[in-house]
Amino acid sequence: MESLFGVCSNSFLPSIQTHKNSVFLPSFNSPHLPRIKSQNWVSLKPHNFPPFAASKKRELKCISSDERLGTSVDEDDSLKTGVRIKNLAVFVSGGGSNFRAIHEAIVRGEVHGRFVVLVTNKHDCGGAEYARKNGIPVIIYPNTKGEPEGLSSNNLVAALSTYGIDFILLAGYLKLIPSELIRAYPKSILNIHPSLLPAFGGKGYYGQKVHKAVIASGARYSGPTIHFVDENYDTGRILAQRIVPVIANDTAEELAARVLRQEHKMYAEVAAAICDERVIWREDGVPLIQSKANPEHYS
Which domain of life is it from (predicted)? Predict the structure, then answer.
């Protein structure tokens, strides 16, 4: 895989602007950019998991963001636990209520991360306005007739590298993520979907369309899913889910409101887990969340 920092070039800098507000990115020679180290895996002791008691013990591996990206830890920016505060990028297309919920959790000190940039395909969406009001730079992607100031895929990857991004959170972003970005951030891009995947997912299933389909199917349960992002819609590895009952006479709006309340809680909890480096990958490729209170327990 091409190095994340190998794609950077000063040639794209003049084109990175937001609608009305320009974003001036730091120089690629900035002393604040992460320093590259060798990449290593941290092996954790295998554990038995009650849900998988019938199978053999599985090896678990955890990648810290510093090892994955080859970055050093800033001593002044570390937690007492030795885990560095993570730099987060968020992608939105609309009001960004999940983005706001996570940001509020960060302000309360519940998530050891910080949003350093927002990416949107709509310069005037609610999420972008909230970001600007909170001093978070906004980048437009992709470049379209309606958004001529938007970046190309390669320039987007280069732009995000200047912010030292650890994780990317999709929060109601309706465009397909470019393969260049997925390759640059392996196991580091998360999305939230308003149904229990793999049911009611894929291209065209978003917003109220999902909830209408759930009700029409006669399903008794729905709920949000957080999954890692691959090159297709809603097919990446599932990290977390939460069950929401479908009531007999539900409307799509009523179901959507109940699911959204759970989305806000769950996404903040998952953001806390990834920033604390508590996402563990089982040897068969299944991601699990390690309990903060009890490291022997996984969900």
Answer: Eukaryota
